[in-house]
Amino acid sequence: MMKIALALYVVYAIGLAVALARAGLRPGPALSSGPAAPARRILVIGAAGRTGRRIVEGALARGYRVTAFARDPAKLGIEHPDLSVVRGDVVDPGSVDAAVAGQDAVLCALGHNRFLGPSDILSEGTGNLLRAMERHGVRRLVCETSLGIGDSAGRMGLWYTLFVIPVILPFYFWDKTRQERRIAGSATDWVIVRPGALTGGPRTGRLHHGRGVGSLLWTVRVSRADVAEFMLDQVDSGAYVGRAPGVCRGGPA
Q1: How many structural domains is the chain composed of?
Q2: Which of 5, 68, 235, 251 has the fewest CB atoms within 10 Å, i.e. the most exposed one?
Q3: pTM over 0.85
Q4: What is the mean predicted confidence (pLDDT) over 222-227?
Q5: Residue 59 lies in a domain
Q6: Where does 139-224 show beta strands of DSSP type E?
Q7: CATH number of the domain to which 171 belongs
Q8: Tens of pLDDT along 171-222?
């Protein structure tokens, strides 16, 4: 009986990985957006989260004027003369629209902890964001999703493919596939960033990034600080527009 149950579970886990591959984004040729004016004002969605906070810190260090959008601004814990903190919820179109107005670019590190049932927070919130960007003429979007979907399915390693995603995060990852599809169907100059398993480590500046990043066997990891820096690099770069590069920790310098 145990062998049958184990076999059925493995079939389920592998089937989910295949479904995430088919449902997620498989980017085509890079978009041709032409030269863009350098961004000066950026909006960070999910600013109070662990990656979002790193993005805010990095953006301020680079000299951007930053608007931090968060459900609970008190959790951000950052003060700076070039920082505006606004309270809002991505599922509220009005608050999203007000935050997008006047921005040059948007960085989205949206996440939540509602793992135990179906959720559309990521996809619906991103839909509200995309509509606001179109309304206000904001072109550049850099959005964090994850390895493990689309053409990166399975590349979080076996631990994630066979346990973490199918047992803990199936609904979360399924919503990420819808989120990516919405972004790819938009008129924005988008970059989707797919990190490996996130850690709280320091910025190293040593990254593998691009298509084919990750491992089918071993868990690949990357610090949130490195992901934030990579996302900020995409604000004015055309290298990955219309693409979904994977990102994981590189070797020693």
Answers
A1: 1
A2: 251
A3: yes
A4: 97
A5: yes
A6: 140-144, 189-195, 197-199, 207-210, 221-223
A7: 3.40.50.720
A8: 999 999 999 999 999 999 999 999 999 999 999 988 999 999 999 999 999 9
Within 112-157, where are the H helices? 121-136
pLDDT of residue 17: 86
d(CA 56, CA 83): 8
pLDDT tens, 89-130?
Answer: 999 999 999 999 999 999 999 988 776 777 899 999 999 999
Q: Which of 231, 232, 212 is nearest to 220 (CA)?
A: 212
Amino acid sitting at position 16 = L
> What's the CA gap between 67 and 209, in Å, rounded?
27
Q: What is the DSSP string of 199-234?
A: E-PPP---EEEETT-SBSSSPPEEEHHHHHHHHHHT
> CB–CB of 77/54 below 8 Å?
no
Instruction: Show the domain range for 62.
Output: 38-249
